[in-house]
Amino acid sequence: MADTEIEGGEGRAAGSREQNLGALFEAVLTRGPLSRRDAARVTGLSPASVTKLVKPMITHGYLVERHREAGVPGRPQIPLQVVPERHYAVGVKLMEGELVGVMADLHAEVQSAHRMRYDDTSPAGVVAAVASLTEVLLERSPAARDRLLGIGIGLGGHVDGASGLVVHAPFLGWRDVPLQQMVADRLGIEVVLENDVNTLAVAEQWFGPGFAFDSFAVVTLGVGVGCAFVLDGKLWRGARGAAGELGHMVVVPDGPPCHCGKRGCLEAVVGDEAIVAAMSARSGRRYTTVSQVIAAAHAGDEHARGVFAEAGVGVGRALAALVNLLNPPLVILSGEGIAASDLLMDALRAELERDSFSTSAQDCTLLVRPLPDETWARGAAATMIRRGVLRSLSRLSDQVVG
Ligand SMILES: [Zn+2]
Question: For residue range 38-76, what is the model confidence (pLDDT) as tens digits?
Fold first, then answer.
């Protein structure tokens, strides 16, 4: 399987035909309309290979040629673009008590979106909720019914996409739930599971600022702390999908207890619950939500400002470790916790500067990006598109002699 393949030393030229088809499709999808010449430049494939690989994709309706570009010096180039209505994919962000779903076309443009609550957190209950969400999306986008590639589902926790297993999802109280197979059996369609921050990273890679970078990290703040890496253009999942557990890096030795059993984890210091608890302890008054603490800080409350400054130090410390390890050119900060970014950033940047090695902190652009749940769901759909199209294209390569 592609997931475990080790690429040879000759770069793109050593890729299998399937990998090359995938890379070419992705280049046209994210950068198109794109001429064959530009596609060769972007993918590193030879112009002759591009011409050969494009042929079956046009024959089978994945790509279409647009009108020749006028006014471009040299031989006129015919731009290629993805045919959006060739396939569709559903993307789902599975959260505590709530699901957000989108129907995306092959261009990963959102055709419809829907949000619904669910109460039954058993695996069967969640499968039923995903099924009814999918049905609503299909009713709204009937053209997708016969052309659905599959469903991409993103959720928080330890998700092993290769085996389709939710290894550990604390917010659902699940361990080792074969959610991928369960949804696939229920709906009779291909399903891809992914950690939700990974789906956000895919969205940022395809449609966000990650587009301009080969490598970057996404860090999310909120109830928990999430982290995902795109390295040399690929999502880095680790041995079993548990990469990016920045939230369980100890930033305050002997700090507050974490639900994972350790003390002083980043999540136990800057997660929503920790912010509320720290504010209640400092002020001697009872706070119940982060937005109350944010409001107090904005009104000039010193306790509240201190709580966020401390959280900023914690995040800065963890980010320093991240930039020291990977030296990424870009880190995107997102998640609902960035509602307090104006209160965190000064302390965060100062600590990041202090704890990082050499130029690692200066090399890294830190972007704060408020992204709605629909963007995470769109990333889940993009994950499904990537997997499903690769599979379809690999079948084409068997059928068509280029
Ligand atoms: Zn922990």
Answer: 999 999 999 999 999 999 999 999 999 987 766 666 666
| Ligand 1 midpoint to CA 245 (Å) | 9
Strand (E) or helix (H) holding 293: helix 290-298
User: Could you tell me the distance, in angstroms and rounded to a whole number, from the CA of residue 153 to the centre of ligand 1?
Assistant: 24
Phi-psi sector, 71: left (phi>0), alpha (psi -120 to 50), beta: left
Distance 201 CA to ligand 1 centre (A): 22
Q: Tell which CATH classification among 1.10.10.60, 3.30.1640.10, 3.30.360.10, 1.10.10.10 matches the domain 2-82.
A: 1.10.10.10
C-alpha distance from residue 36 to each of 19, 43, 48, 336 (Å)? 17, 10, 9, 41
**pTM for this entry:** 0.90
Which homologous superfamily is 209-371 in? ATPase, nucleotide binding domain (3.30.420.40)
- What is the Å distance from ligand 1's center to 225 Cα? 10
pLDDT tens across 79-126, in order? 999 999 999 999 999 999 999 999 999 989 999 999 999 999 999 999
The CATH number fitting domain 86-189+374-392, selected from 3.40.1160.10, 3.30.420.40, 3.40.1190.20, 3.30.470.20: 3.30.420.40
